Amino acid sequence: MPTENPKPTPSVDEVDTRYLETLVGYNARRAALAVIGVFMERMAEYDLRVVDFSVASLILHNPGITSRQLCSALGMLPPNLVSLVNTLEKRRLITRRPHPNDGRASGLHPTPEGAALMRAAESAASELEFVASSRLTVAERKTLLRLLKKIYL
Fold first, then answer.
1. Quick one: which H or E segment has residue 45?
2. Fewer Cβ within 10 Å of end Cβ, the chain: N or C?
3. Whole-model pTM?
């Protein structure tokens, strides 16, 4: 019995990403990955993960913020925040104080050490963001931020 010649297996010389490039999620994720990898490297110097940085930054700029407010601002579930806050407190970057209006809540405050660390980390983050978005004009960067916020706010 004669053997039929199988069709050759196709090969790809150039990857066609045109469809994926029409998707907001794909583009947002690619842009985020380009920034977050370098961000994580830079924040390792401060022993901060992305979420640690976000939480500590909100506490720095909103002394007295509650855990509930943090969860709302970051779209986090309370159980996910508890250990994070405990870790920041153990590192003496934040402290808890009784909330002035809600006896059941604690306000979270940066310690002097935490404030100093976050100012340095935020400076590094701002520098990184400037480099990561260097292909954009100032107006384009503002437009990009405005458009991204329209998606999640």
1. none
2. N
3. 0.84
